[in-house]
Amino acid sequence: MASMNRIIDNKYEILRMIGQGGMSKVYLAMDSRLNKQWAIKEISRINKNGFSEVNLKAALDEADMMKRLDHPALPRIVDIIQEKDVIYVVMDYIEGEPLSKLLENGNAQPQEQVIEWAKQLCNVLDYLHTCNPPIIYRDMKPGNIMLKPDGQLKLIDFGIAREYKENKVGDTVNLGTRGYAAPEQFGSHGQTDARTDIYCLGMTLYHLVTGRSPAEEPYGGVPIRELNPILSSGLEKIILKCTEANPNDRYQSCAELLYDLERYDEVDDTYRQNQKKKLKRFGIVSAAAVFSIVFGAFAQVMNAQKVNNDYEVNLDLGDTATTQEQKINYYEKAIDIKPEKHEAYYALLTTFKDDASFQIEEEQILKKKINRNLAELVETDHYSDLAYEIGKTYWYYYDYGSENTDDNQLTRIKAAKTWFSDVVEDPENEHYAQAKIYESIATFHEEVNLKVEEASDQGMYKEYWDNIEALLDFTIENKNESEIVKLEVYKLITNALENEVRKFASDGIEKDDLLEVFYTVRSLVDELDVSTDKTINLKESITSRFDEVVKAIDTAFIEQ
């Protein structure tokens, strides 16, 4: 067992015990290599105090589950050390205090603060629920929520969390904290799912905003305004819906709950009364007819507002999600809600490009959404802008799996053409000139081989050279262009100079013009700071061809 100042695994020095539970002890430790503090959970292998191998397996399952998660509100597992009698799980040390500490002596927390905490907790629960397979936390309570000095929350203690198994009739173990736990966590009420966590969260919010623990007799809660009449009736309704006994009567997802939390004042009775007063100002003339018209219009407006809000909620959830899978999921939902709006498509493209690679699987997702909604999209004012961004995504990021980078570049260029052609159909679009250049370069690469076979390629190369020069100028003017885009443009030009220089010369392009562009590109490549393995390798690949490019230019003009 760990003791003060003991060194574990030759690097973790035990400083002090900071927690103890039935199955484990938790120590604060210092990493001698990184000079960083970690929390170390010590789990005994020895069967004592009634704990069995089942409990040990549960603790190890918790550690294994946590290793796979990546969210700012969850602690990371960084190491697992197995010894003869104990297992040590090394994880983030979370500075701060549990929310239960703030609730000592019945201290209710400010309503606005509780709502902000609720939004954070909704976000992390939604992350867990949309994992594959979904993870159900099952023990939400103030004691398991750490408040950090920066005001952010961390969810701890995954000892009873479980992966949701579809079609499973019921859970085999009754687990949870009485007062906070949902009815289905006890007895034979069915298996737990995302709605179970929503119940536990509702009881946690109840405790935070009233100061009254649902874990004390009488168990459970009452409407919060019975304890404090100044609290919002909107928040009261939200908590009551969270804590319905029947899961079907609760919020069905954390996204749905977050939607109401963002607008809790609109659920408030006072807000609704004010809205009714506004309606009364329309007058009572032809009351029945007017009421019918106004109510119908009002209902349409409210429905449109709800759709718009659902769209915005999914966009916000996507923006704050921590994994690519989650971001894609939320942006797809947003597109399904309002397929004619462009923001979710842009967000989806940005997510695909985050790793500097637009994969075939991602292309299928994009095509599915675009093709399904194309008729609506082409009628919007922003379609040409969207087509331009899709074209650039293909041109610079598309990766269909070939290890030959030159082949990959040509495939990207050809795949992008159709999107730039759509932009070119809109001469008023601000990207028209750039799109025309991209389209012309793509057309050259599509047609040049056939033209060479037909011996009809004379004259093509002058236009091609003019276009890649113009593309270089656009790239230089755009100071905010990404390093991958800049490098791909430089690569396109160096490849053209090395492989097509004789054709350029035969089409009348002067040697000095070619060298001027080459020296410009070489200077830009040398000056460019790169930050990823992909761009480092790409820069090295381009630089390695510089000597060959100079030789190719010299040779082409000696032969003339």
What is the gist of this entry?
This protein is of the alpha+beta class. The chain has helices at 53-67, 99-102, 111-129, 194-210, 224-227, 233-242, 254-262, 264-267, 269-280, 287-320, 324-337, 343-353, 360-377, 383-397, 405-424, 432-453, 460-477, 483-506, 511-527, 533-543, 546-558; strands at residues 7-8, 12-20, 24-31, 36-44, 77-82, 86-92, 97-98, 135-136, 145-147, 153-155, 162-163, 358-359, 398-399. Belongs to the protein kinase superfamily. NEK Ser/Thr protein kinase family. NIMA subfamily.
Characterize the structure shown.
One of its GO terms (molecular function) is ATP binding. It is an enzyme of class 2 (transferase). The chain is of the alpha+beta class and 560 residues long. Among the domains are: 7-92, Phosphorylase Kinase, domain 1; 97-272, Transferase(Phosphotransferase) domain 1 (Transferase(Phosphotransferase), domain 1, Orthogonal Bundle), CATH 1.10.510; 458-560, no CATH class. The chain has 21 helices and 13 strands. The chain has helices at residues 53-67, 99-102, 111-129, 194-210, 224-227, 233-242, 254-262, 264-267, 269-280, 287-320, 324-337, 343-353, 360-377, 383-397, 405-424, 432-453, 460-477, 483-506, 511-527, 533-543, 546-558, and strands at 7-8, 12-20, 24-31, 36-44, 77-82, 86-92, 97-98, 135-136, 145-147, 153-155, 162-163, 358-359, 398-399. It has a six-stranded antiparallel β-sheet with strand order 1-2-3-4-6-5, with helices on one face. Strands 7-9-10 form a three-stranded antiparallel β-sheet. A two-stranded antiparallel ribbon has the order 8-11. Helix 10 runs antiparallel to helix 11 (324-337). The protein is elongated and about 95 Å long. The termini are far apart.
